[in-house]
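Sample entry (378 residues):
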Amino acid sequence: MSLEIVIVFAAATGRTLVLPPDTPFYLLSKKVEGKKTMPRHHGFADFLYLESEAMRKTVNMITMTEFLQLEGTNAGDVPSEEKMFSMPEGSEGQKIRKSAEQCYYVAKSDRPCDMIYSFLASAAYVPELNALKDCLVFDAERQSSKEVYTDAEILDLMPESERLRVKEFCEKRNVVFFGNELASAPLIHFHAGEKHHRLLSHFYTFLYFPDPKVDHFVKRFVRDFLHYTDIIWCAAGRVIELLRNEATELEISGNGTNDFSTLHARRGDFQYKKVKISAEDWYENTKDLFHPKEIIYVATDEKEKEFFEPMAASYNLRFLSDFSHAAGLDELDPNLMGMIDTIIASQGRLFVGTWFSTFTGYIVSLATCSVLFQSKLL
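Predicted structure, serialized as C-alpha coordinates:
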Protein backbone atom coordinates (compact mmCIF):
# COMPACT_ATOMS: atom_id res chain seq x y z
CA MET A 1 0.00 0.00 0.00
CA SER A 2 2.87 2.37 0.72
CA LEU A 3 4.26 1.70 -2.75
CA GLU A 4 0.87 2.44 -4.31
CA ILE A 5 0.77 5.79 -2.52
CA VAL A 6 4.29 6.74 -3.60
CA ILE A 7 3.67 5.70 -7.23
CA VAL A 8 0.42 7.68 -7.34
CA PHE A 9 2.25 10.65 -5.82
CA ALA A 10 4.86 10.42 -8.58
CA ALA A 11 2.15 10.14 -11.25
CA ALA A 12 0.25 13.14 -9.87
CA THR A 13 3.32 15.37 -9.56
CA GLY A 14 5.34 14.28 -12.60
CA ARG A 15 8.32 13.23 -10.50
CA THR A 16 10.72 10.39 -11.26
CA LEU A 17 10.18 7.41 -8.98
CA VAL A 18 13.27 5.77 -7.49
CA LEU A 19 12.46 2.15 -6.77
CA PRO A 20 13.56 0.77 -3.39
CA PRO A 21 16.30 -1.86 -3.24
CA ASP A 22 15.43 -5.54 -3.16
CA THR A 23 14.62 -6.33 0.45
CA PRO A 24 13.39 -9.45 2.27
CA PHE A 25 9.71 -8.84 2.93
CA TYR A 26 7.89 -9.86 6.09
CA LEU A 27 6.57 -13.45 5.71
CA LEU A 28 7.86 -13.59 2.11
CA SER A 29 11.19 -15.34 2.54
CA LYS A 30 10.09 -18.97 2.28
CA LYS A 31 12.68 -21.27 0.78
CA VAL A 32 11.78 -24.39 -1.16
CA GLU A 33 13.91 -27.39 -0.42
CA GLY A 34 15.39 -28.90 -3.57
CA LYS A 35 14.50 -25.87 -5.73
CA LYS A 36 17.61 -23.72 -5.63
CA THR A 37 16.49 -21.64 -8.60
CA MET A 38 13.66 -20.04 -6.61
CA PRO A 39 14.76 -16.80 -4.94
CA ARG A 40 14.40 -16.57 -1.21
CA HIS A 41 14.38 -12.78 -1.15
CA HIS A 42 12.26 -10.59 -3.37
CA GLY A 43 11.76 -7.06 -4.64
CA PHE A 44 8.52 -5.40 -5.67
CA ALA A 45 9.17 -6.35 -9.30
CA ASP A 46 8.80 -10.03 -8.35
CA PHE A 47 5.13 -9.42 -7.59
CA LEU A 48 4.08 -6.29 -9.47
CA TYR A 49 4.33 -5.69 -13.20
CA LEU A 50 6.35 -2.47 -13.20
CA GLU A 51 7.80 -2.78 -16.70
CA SER A 52 4.68 -1.77 -18.62
CA GLU A 53 5.59 0.65 -21.40
CA ALA A 54 2.28 2.47 -20.99
CA MET A 55 2.87 2.82 -17.24
CA ARG A 56 6.40 4.12 -17.76
CA LYS A 57 5.00 6.86 -20.01
CA THR A 58 3.12 8.20 -17.00
CA VAL A 59 5.74 7.53 -14.31
CA ASN A 60 9.45 7.49 -15.06
CA MET A 61 11.16 4.90 -12.86
CA ILE A 62 14.80 4.20 -12.12
CA THR A 63 16.56 1.86 -9.72
CA MET A 64 18.23 3.08 -6.55
CA THR A 65 21.64 2.22 -8.00
CA GLU A 66 20.90 4.28 -11.13
CA PHE A 67 19.76 7.15 -8.93
CA LEU A 68 23.00 7.22 -6.92
CA GLN A 69 25.03 7.19 -10.14
CA LEU A 70 22.97 9.97 -11.72
CA GLU A 71 22.64 12.35 -8.77
CA GLY A 72 25.63 11.70 -6.52
CA THR A 73 29.18 13.03 -6.79
CA ASN A 74 31.99 10.72 -5.80
CA ALA A 75 35.08 11.44 -3.74
CA GLY A 76 37.52 13.48 -5.83
CA ASP A 77 34.85 14.75 -8.23
CA VAL A 78 34.51 18.43 -8.89
CA PRO A 79 31.49 19.71 -6.90
CA SER A 80 28.51 20.32 -9.17
CA GLU A 81 25.28 22.19 -8.59
CA GLU A 82 23.62 19.76 -11.00
CA LYS A 83 24.06 16.92 -8.51
CA MET A 84 21.80 16.46 -5.49
CA PHE A 85 24.36 15.10 -3.02
CA SER A 86 27.90 13.88 -2.43
CA MET A 87 28.55 10.21 -1.78
CA PRO A 88 30.58 9.41 1.36
CA GLU A 89 34.08 8.03 0.91
CA GLY A 90 35.51 4.67 1.96
CA SER A 91 33.57 1.81 3.53
CA GLU A 92 30.54 3.99 4.27
CA GLY A 93 30.11 4.84 0.60
CA GLN A 94 30.62 1.19 -0.38
CA LYS A 95 27.94 0.05 2.06
CA ILE A 96 25.49 2.63 0.72
CA ARG A 97 26.07 1.47 -2.86
CA LYS A 98 25.67 -2.19 -1.88
CA SER A 99 22.51 -1.38 0.07
CA ALA A 100 21.09 0.44 -2.95
CA GLU A 101 21.13 -2.80 -4.91
CA GLN A 102 19.91 -5.14 -2.18
CA CYS A 103 19.66 -4.52 1.55
CA TYR A 104 18.84 -6.42 4.73
CA TYR A 105 17.30 -5.26 8.00
CA VAL A 106 20.34 -6.53 9.89
CA ALA A 107 22.63 -3.90 11.39
CA LYS A 108 25.78 -6.05 11.05
CA SER A 109 25.12 -6.84 7.38
CA ASP A 110 27.52 -5.50 4.76
CA ARG A 111 24.48 -3.91 3.12
CA PRO A 112 22.10 -2.81 5.92
CA CYS A 113 18.85 -1.13 4.86
CA ASP A 114 19.29 1.53 7.50
CA MET A 115 22.46 2.67 5.73
CA ILE A 116 20.76 3.63 2.46
CA TYR A 117 17.58 4.99 4.02
CA SER A 118 19.39 7.11 6.61
CA PHE A 119 21.56 8.53 3.85
CA LEU A 120 18.50 9.41 1.77
CA ALA A 121 16.81 11.00 4.77
CA SER A 122 19.85 13.25 5.29
CA ALA A 123 19.94 14.32 1.63
CA ALA A 124 16.22 14.71 0.96
CA TYR A 125 13.11 16.42 2.22
CA VAL A 126 11.22 13.92 4.42
CA PRO A 127 7.49 14.77 4.61
CA GLU A 128 5.98 14.61 8.08
CA LEU A 129 3.07 12.49 6.91
CA ASN A 130 1.35 9.49 8.45
CA ALA A 131 -1.55 7.97 6.51
CA LEU A 132 -3.47 7.15 9.69
CA LYS A 133 -3.15 10.68 11.08
CA ASP A 134 -3.01 12.84 7.94
CA CYS A 135 -4.64 13.15 4.53
CA LEU A 136 -2.96 14.82 1.55
CA VAL A 137 -5.11 17.09 -0.63
CA PHE A 138 -4.06 17.87 -4.21
CA ASP A 139 -5.88 21.13 -4.93
CA ALA A 140 -4.22 22.98 -7.83
CA GLU A 141 -6.16 26.20 -7.12
CA ARG A 142 -4.81 26.42 -3.58
CA GLN A 143 -1.29 25.09 -4.01
CA SER A 144 0.26 28.57 -4.05
CA SER A 145 -1.67 29.50 -0.88
CA LYS A 146 0.69 27.29 1.13
CA GLU A 147 3.29 30.04 0.87
CA VAL A 148 1.03 32.42 2.82
CA TYR A 149 -1.47 30.39 4.83
CA THR A 150 -1.37 27.34 7.07
CA ASP A 151 -3.27 24.21 6.12
CA ALA A 152 -5.97 25.00 8.67
CA GLU A 153 -6.37 28.55 7.31
CA ILE A 154 -6.61 27.28 3.72
CA LEU A 155 -9.34 24.87 4.80
CA ASP A 156 -11.27 27.63 6.59
CA LEU A 157 -11.07 29.89 3.50
CA MET A 158 -12.55 27.26 1.18
CA PRO A 159 -16.18 27.52 0.05
CA GLU A 160 -18.35 25.59 2.45
CA SER A 161 -19.32 22.83 0.01
CA GLU A 162 -15.66 22.12 -0.86
CA ARG A 163 -14.59 22.32 2.78
CA LEU A 164 -17.23 19.80 3.78
CA ARG A 165 -16.09 17.36 1.09
CA VAL A 166 -12.49 17.59 2.32
CA LYS A 167 -13.59 17.08 5.93
CA GLU A 168 -15.76 14.14 4.94
CA PHE A 169 -12.79 12.50 3.23
CA CYS A 170 -10.24 13.22 5.95
CA GLU A 171 -12.60 12.73 8.92
CA LYS A 172 -10.55 13.24 12.10
CA ARG A 173 -7.18 13.30 10.36
CA ASN A 174 -5.06 16.40 9.81
CA VAL A 175 -5.70 18.05 6.45
CA VAL A 176 -2.43 18.69 4.57
CA PHE A 177 -2.50 20.55 1.25
CA PHE A 178 0.04 19.75 -1.42
CA GLY A 179 2.53 22.60 -1.85
CA ASN A 180 5.70 24.17 -0.45
CA GLU A 181 8.48 21.56 -0.05
CA LEU A 182 6.26 18.76 -1.33
CA ALA A 183 6.05 20.65 -4.60
CA SER A 184 9.47 22.31 -4.76
CA ALA A 185 12.00 20.03 -3.03
CA PRO A 186 14.29 18.44 -5.63
CA LEU A 187 14.38 15.18 -3.70
CA ILE A 188 11.61 13.73 -1.52
CA HIS A 189 12.13 10.65 0.62
CA PHE A 190 9.06 8.94 2.05
CA HIS A 191 10.57 7.28 5.11
CA ALA A 192 7.57 4.94 5.39
CA GLY A 193 9.51 2.33 7.33
CA GLU A 194 9.48 4.55 10.41
CA LYS A 195 6.47 4.33 12.70
CA HIS A 196 5.61 8.05 12.62
CA HIS A 197 6.00 8.20 8.82
CA ARG A 198 4.02 5.07 7.97
CA LEU A 199 1.83 5.07 4.87
CA LEU A 200 -0.11 1.95 5.80
CA SER A 201 -3.31 2.86 4.02
CA HIS A 202 -4.92 2.59 0.61
CA PHE A 203 -4.03 5.43 -1.74
CA TYR A 204 -7.72 6.34 -2.21
CA THR A 205 -8.15 6.90 1.54
CA PHE A 206 -5.00 9.02 1.94
CA LEU A 207 -4.69 11.07 -1.28
CA TYR A 208 -7.62 13.35 -2.11
CA PHE A 209 -8.12 14.87 -5.56
CA PRO A 210 -11.02 17.39 -5.60
CA ASP A 211 -11.03 17.49 -9.40
CA PRO A 212 -13.10 14.46 -10.52
CA LYS A 213 -11.14 14.16 -13.77
CA VAL A 214 -7.86 13.85 -11.89
CA ASP A 215 -9.41 11.52 -9.32
CA HIS A 216 -10.74 9.20 -12.03
CA PHE A 217 -7.43 9.28 -13.90
CA VAL A 218 -5.51 8.23 -10.79
CA LYS A 219 -7.88 5.38 -9.98
CA ARG A 220 -7.83 4.11 -13.57
CA PHE A 221 -4.04 4.34 -13.52
CA VAL A 222 -3.82 2.12 -10.44
CA ARG A 223 -6.46 -0.28 -11.79
CA ASP A 224 -4.74 -0.69 -15.15
CA PHE A 225 -1.07 -0.71 -14.18
CA LEU A 226 -0.47 -1.47 -10.49
CA HIS A 227 -1.34 -5.14 -10.52
CA TYR A 228 0.29 -8.50 -9.93
CA THR A 229 2.37 -10.25 -12.57
CA ASP A 230 0.81 -12.66 -15.08
CA ILE A 231 2.20 -15.69 -13.21
CA ILE A 232 0.15 -14.73 -10.14
CA TRP A 233 -3.03 -13.88 -12.08
CA CYS A 234 -2.90 -17.05 -14.19
CA ALA A 235 -2.42 -19.25 -11.12
CA ALA A 236 -5.38 -17.58 -9.41
CA GLY A 237 -7.41 -17.98 -12.60
CA ARG A 238 -6.84 -21.72 -12.63
CA VAL A 239 -8.13 -22.03 -9.06
CA ILE A 240 -11.14 -19.81 -9.79
CA GLU A 241 -12.03 -21.98 -12.80
CA LEU A 242 -11.86 -25.12 -10.64
CA LEU A 243 -14.06 -23.52 -7.98
CA ARG A 244 -16.65 -22.46 -10.55
CA ASN A 245 -16.67 -25.89 -12.17
CA GLU A 246 -17.26 -27.52 -8.80
CA ALA A 247 -20.00 -25.01 -7.95
CA THR A 248 -21.75 -25.79 -11.23
CA GLU A 249 -21.64 -29.51 -10.48
CA LEU A 250 -23.01 -29.05 -6.97
CA GLU A 251 -25.73 -26.60 -8.10
CA ILE A 252 -26.09 -25.37 -4.54
CA SER A 253 -27.84 -22.19 -5.60
CA GLY A 254 -30.44 -24.15 -7.54
CA ASN A 255 -30.29 -21.84 -10.54
CA GLY A 256 -27.44 -23.46 -12.41
CA THR A 257 -24.92 -20.69 -11.67
CA ASN A 258 -21.28 -21.26 -10.86
CA ASP A 259 -21.20 -18.93 -7.85
CA PHE A 260 -19.02 -19.39 -4.81
CA SER A 261 -18.40 -17.02 -1.92
CA THR A 262 -15.19 -16.12 -0.13
CA LEU A 263 -13.95 -15.38 3.34
CA HIS A 264 -10.73 -14.00 4.80
CA ALA A 265 -10.00 -15.09 8.37
CA ARG A 266 -6.91 -13.32 9.71
CA ARG A 267 -5.32 -15.29 12.50
CA GLY A 268 -1.58 -15.69 13.18
CA ASP A 269 0.16 -12.76 14.85
CA PHE A 270 -2.66 -10.30 14.20
CA GLN A 271 -2.44 -7.58 16.85
CA TYR A 272 -6.16 -6.74 16.91
CA LYS A 273 -7.28 -9.47 19.29
CA LYS A 274 -10.96 -8.49 19.34
CA VAL A 275 -11.40 -9.54 15.69
CA LYS A 276 -9.59 -12.89 16.10
CA ILE A 277 -12.88 -14.64 16.64
CA SER A 278 -13.76 -18.32 16.93
CA ALA A 279 -15.10 -20.42 14.05
CA GLU A 280 -18.45 -20.52 15.88
CA ASP A 281 -18.56 -16.72 15.77
CA TRP A 282 -17.63 -16.78 12.09
CA TYR A 283 -20.62 -19.03 11.46
CA GLU A 284 -23.00 -16.86 13.48
CA ASN A 285 -21.83 -13.76 11.60
CA THR A 286 -22.22 -15.34 8.16
CA LYS A 287 -25.16 -17.76 8.39
CA ASP A 288 -27.59 -15.17 6.98
CA LEU A 289 -25.19 -14.26 4.17
CA PHE A 290 -23.91 -17.54 2.75
CA HIS A 291 -26.17 -20.18 1.19
CA PRO A 292 -26.43 -23.58 2.96
CA LYS A 293 -23.79 -25.95 1.59
CA GLU A 294 -22.39 -23.18 -0.62
CA ILE A 295 -18.73 -23.42 -1.62
CA ILE A 296 -16.83 -20.97 0.55
CA TYR A 297 -13.23 -20.27 -0.41
CA VAL A 298 -11.28 -19.46 2.76
CA ALA A 299 -8.19 -17.28 2.54
CA THR A 300 -6.41 -17.55 5.88
CA ASP A 301 -3.09 -17.76 7.65
CA GLU A 302 -4.55 -20.31 10.08
CA LYS A 303 -2.41 -23.42 9.68
CA GLU A 304 -4.90 -25.87 11.20
CA LYS A 305 -7.95 -26.52 9.00
CA GLU A 306 -9.62 -28.17 11.98
CA PHE A 307 -10.20 -24.68 13.35
CA PHE A 308 -12.95 -24.23 10.74
CA GLU A 309 -14.80 -27.49 11.50
CA PRO A 310 -17.80 -25.67 13.06
CA MET A 311 -18.34 -24.01 9.66
CA ALA A 312 -17.60 -27.13 7.61
CA ALA A 313 -20.84 -28.71 8.81
CA SER A 314 -22.85 -26.03 7.00
CA TYR A 315 -20.66 -25.07 4.03
CA ASN A 316 -18.32 -26.69 1.52
CA LEU A 317 -15.06 -25.06 2.58
CA ARG A 318 -12.13 -24.85 0.20
CA PHE A 319 -8.58 -23.65 0.87
CA LEU A 320 -5.68 -22.74 -1.41
CA SER A 321 -3.81 -25.89 -0.39
CA ASP A 322 -6.67 -27.96 -1.83
CA PHE A 323 -5.57 -26.89 -5.31
CA SER A 324 -1.80 -27.32 -4.99
CA HIS A 325 -1.60 -30.08 -7.59
CA ALA A 326 -4.72 -29.47 -9.70
CA ALA A 327 -3.82 -25.81 -10.32
CA GLY A 328 -0.06 -26.34 -10.47
CA LEU A 329 0.57 -24.26 -7.37
CA ASP A 330 3.14 -26.72 -6.06
CA GLU A 331 5.41 -25.73 -8.96
CA LEU A 332 5.37 -22.04 -8.05
CA ASP A 333 7.36 -19.93 -5.63
CA PRO A 334 5.54 -20.37 -2.27
CA ASN A 335 6.00 -16.66 -1.60
CA LEU A 336 3.37 -15.97 -4.26
CA MET A 337 0.58 -17.80 -2.43
CA GLY A 338 -0.66 -14.78 -0.47
CA MET A 339 -1.09 -12.75 -3.67
CA ILE A 340 -2.91 -15.63 -5.33
CA ASP A 341 -5.18 -15.84 -2.27
CA THR A 342 -6.20 -12.17 -2.60
CA ILE A 343 -7.23 -12.53 -6.25
CA ILE A 344 -9.32 -15.65 -5.63
CA ALA A 345 -10.99 -14.07 -2.59
CA SER A 346 -11.89 -10.99 -4.64
CA GLN A 347 -13.88 -12.99 -7.21
CA GLY A 348 -16.63 -14.50 -5.07
CA ARG A 349 -20.35 -13.87 -5.19
CA LEU A 350 -19.94 -12.34 -1.75
CA PHE A 351 -16.91 -11.62 0.40
CA VAL A 352 -16.62 -11.49 4.19
CA GLY A 353 -13.36 -10.22 5.65
CA THR A 354 -11.54 -9.38 8.85
CA TRP A 355 -11.88 -5.82 10.10
CA PHE A 356 -8.58 -3.92 10.55
CA SER A 357 -6.78 -6.33 8.21
CA THR A 358 -4.87 -4.73 5.33
CA PHE A 359 -5.08 -8.09 3.54
CA THR A 360 -8.88 -7.84 3.63
CA GLY A 361 -8.59 -4.23 2.52
CA TYR A 362 -6.59 -5.20 -0.54
CA ILE A 363 -9.09 -7.93 -1.43
CA VAL A 364 -11.85 -5.31 -1.36
CA SER A 365 -9.69 -3.03 -3.52
CA LEU A 366 -9.24 -5.79 -6.09
CA ALA A 367 -12.92 -6.63 -5.97
CA THR A 368 -13.97 -3.08 -6.83
CA CYS A 369 -12.45 -3.63 -10.25
CA SER A 370 -14.69 -6.64 -10.85
CA VAL A 371 -18.27 -6.28 -12.09
CA LEU A 372 -19.06 -9.61 -10.45
CA PHE A 373 -18.60 -8.26 -6.95
CA GLN A 374 -21.48 -7.57 -4.55
CA SER A 375 -19.96 -5.63 -1.71
CA LYS A 376 -20.59 -7.13 1.71
CA LEU A 377 -17.92 -6.70 4.34
CA LEU A 378 -18.11 -7.69 7.99
